[in-house]
Amino acid sequence: MFGDMMGMMGKLKETQKKVEETKKRMDSVLIDESSTDNFLKVTITANRKITGISIDDALLEDKEQLEDYLILTINKAIAKATQIQESELAAVAKEGMPNIPGLDMFK
């Protein structure tokens, strides 16, 4: 019984390490998102850190329109980044979970 527990604890520690490595790797995964007319482009990491914004000169003349574009485009980029990060972390967690009866939430 204790051997199984020690094995499970080791597996959990290994999984935790893989999760941390995956989180760090997500800093290098870049997501590009654009407005529908490509006047605004945002680059964000899978950890939801903005790394770049490109604004067409046409948007600089209308502050309200620029703000709307920023909100919409950044929110789309964040949604994509969140989806990528969650799926990557879920895959690592599923792979590393020990087979504990009754705990099959990742299957």
UniProtKB/TrEMBL annotation:
Q: Which SUPFAM superfamilies match?
A: YbaB-like
Against Gene3D superfamilies, the record matches this protein to: Nucleoid-associated protein YbaB-like domain (3.30.1310.10)
Can you tell me which residues the record assigns to a coiled coil? 5-32
Q: Name one GO molecular function term.
A: DNA binding
Keywords attached to this Swiss-Prot or TrEMBL record, sorted alphabetically, are:
Coiled coil, Cytoplasm, DNA-binding
Please state where this protein is localized: Cytoplasm, Nucleoid
Q: Which domain of life is it from?
A: Bacteria
What InterPro entries does the record tag this protein with?
YbaB-like_sf (IPR036894), YbaB/EbfC (IPR004401)
What does UniProt give as GO cellular component? bacterial nucleoid; cytosol
**Family that this chain belongs to:** Belongs to the YbaB/EbfC family.
Query: Cross-referenced NCBIfam families, in alphabetical order?
Result: DNA_YbaB_EbfC
Query: What is known about its subunit structure?
Result: Homodimer.
Q: What does this protein do?
A: Binds to DNA and alters its conformation. May be involved in regulation of gene expression, nucleoid organization and DNA protection.
The record's section on PANTHER family has: NUCLEOID-ASSOCIATED PROTEIN YBAB (PTHR33449:SF1)
Q: What protein am I looking at?
A: Nucleoid-associated protein JJQ60_20135
Phylogenetic placement of the source organism: Bacteria, Pseudomonadati, Bacteroidota, Flavobacteriia, Flavobacteriales
